[in-house]
Amino acid sequence: MISMFLSFSKTHSPERSRRRKTNTRPRVEGLEDRALMASLASLSAATATIAATPVAFNGALYFSATDAVNGTELWKSDGTSAGTQILKDIYPGSKSSYPSNLTVVGSKLFFSATDPVAGTELWATDGTSAGTQMVKDLYPGVIGSYPDQLTPMNGVLYYVAYDPKGGYELIRSDGTAAGTAMVKDINPGTAASSIRNLTAVGSTLYFSATNGVNGAELWKSDGTAAGTVMVKDANPGSGSSNPGVFAALGSTLFYSAYTPASGYELWKSDGTAAGTVQVADITPGATSSMPAELTAFGSYIYFSANDGVNGVELWRTNGVTTTLFADIRPGALGSTPQNLTVAGSNLFFTANDGVHGAELWRTDGTTAGTFLVSDIYPGAISSNVQNLQAVGSKVYFSACAPNFGTELWSSDGTSAGTSLVIDMNPGAGSSKPRDMVVMQGALYFVADDATTTNRLRKLVTG
């Protein structure tokens, strides 16, 4: 069932907010220790980088960073300058191990890294240098298995990697060499099964894969070979439905999939063939509505889609009723909602109503509670709100305002409660806050200032 819910015109926009700095005068601290700061100061901005988004684990932040002595390696920070240091030089010397895909599973932090003997393989750490070890040389020799899409489920890590017997397939690991092995050779032999979108929903791991016969379709796994099966051949035969944009609402998976009759539309699955169905043909016929930005909020999945009449707008579904929730920009152009982020009782997102440019919006799931939060860059120019990060009921983000460049902002969902947090690169220069993460209630992020680039920062509001 498809229905219309809410449309907007100019009169729905609240008055523009006052753009101001916060009264508490927060400050930002750099977290690199003195050795790293000295090393970075001697390098160009292109090489002085935080190379991966920090991950919180056991009361500390872990991230890959580059210095002139050790290359790009795994670092650790307890939130203080003195407590920020390299954890282990996995590839000794100035060459780099390039840690990536940092993923917490129980008492271990897993990641992909390269050493001179085994190539790129799965590693894990307990937070100590001695406890940072390669889990298994899955592809023996210097080439490596190249672990990717690391995903936790029920205390076990699942990922995609190259196995010399099965090609690129689904791998399971409990953190030990003996407990790390291919789950199933989905596409028999060394041909890849092209696994994408690993998503855990309860005790079921969903993903897109091909077995070499049916094309790219929806699969599931319980971690056993027998329990790893194709859920449904939605585009029968060798054609592909190309499942993507996965999101869970309770025990149900929602996603986008293609069929020749309907194009790319919204689907759902309970893990059975009978329970895997198209939710709605939003753009009737073979034309696609291209569902994107799927985000669970309350009892609904909110998403962007194009019904062919209203352009790309904000929709929602509970799996039974699918609604055009907000026609923010009336007409065929659409407001293109993006960056959907839940914070407290609000869903924040960016949208362009055709009057104010792309700015910060919010909804509480009601008509009255859906509106433009603040026109940060007044008029039709967009403030380019990005990198939304929820901290309690507030959202922090980067945005560009006149005279300030792209800096750190925050919002509680009201016009009065939306403000510039700090002008780190004074004047029209930009600090470009990004890679935000929350640890123990504090916000950490990567940003630039007038003299340094790509440094890890901590927001101090006291």
Automatic annotation (TrEMBL):
In residue numbers, the region (Disordered) covers 1-26
Q: Which SUPFAM superfamilies match?
A: YWTD domain (SSF63825)
Bias type Polar residues, positions: 1-11
Q: Which domain of life is it from?
A: Bacteria
Put simply, this protein is called Hyalin
Source organism per UniProt = Paludisphaera borealis
